[in-house]
Amino acid sequence: MININVALDPQLDGPKDSKVCSLISHVMECEGISHADLSLIFGNDNLLADLKKKFFDLDHYTDVIAFRINDYDENNVEGEIYISLPRAKENAIKYDQSFQKELGRLIIHGSLHLLGYKDDTKKNELEMRNKEDSYLEQVNWKKLYG
What we know:
Layout: E1 2-8, H1 17-30, E2 36-43, H2 45-56, E3 64-68, E4 77-84, H3 85-94, H4 99-114, H5 122-138
Parallel strand pairs: 1-2, 2-4
Antiparallel strand pairs: 3-4
Helix pairs in contact: 1-4, 3-4, 4-5
């Protein structure tokens, strides 16, 4: 069973929980995961910048951070994904994408990080991008807010 808890900064307008859960569940199931306990937190730039500083000693804004809580060699996945909605909006403009598509990409990106995928090299980054594109084609990201 895949359990997903979605939390939202009350000052922000977030997507529908059911659509977010459906997207994450799809990625997990396609990647062979049938048991997961996940949290997805939609916050602001300051929240993610604070996490980036605290855990990575980097002082800048970021769009998504994922923390795997249990070991990667376990079949069940326990983890947290943090997404900055303001940063997602800026990314959408920067990359000439719709906001909902960019948000879908970030949700998928965070999910892939929880599964052990990395974007620390050009090769790994390309692998993640290809997976993101594939999953975006498989799901209805246009309905994240509807």
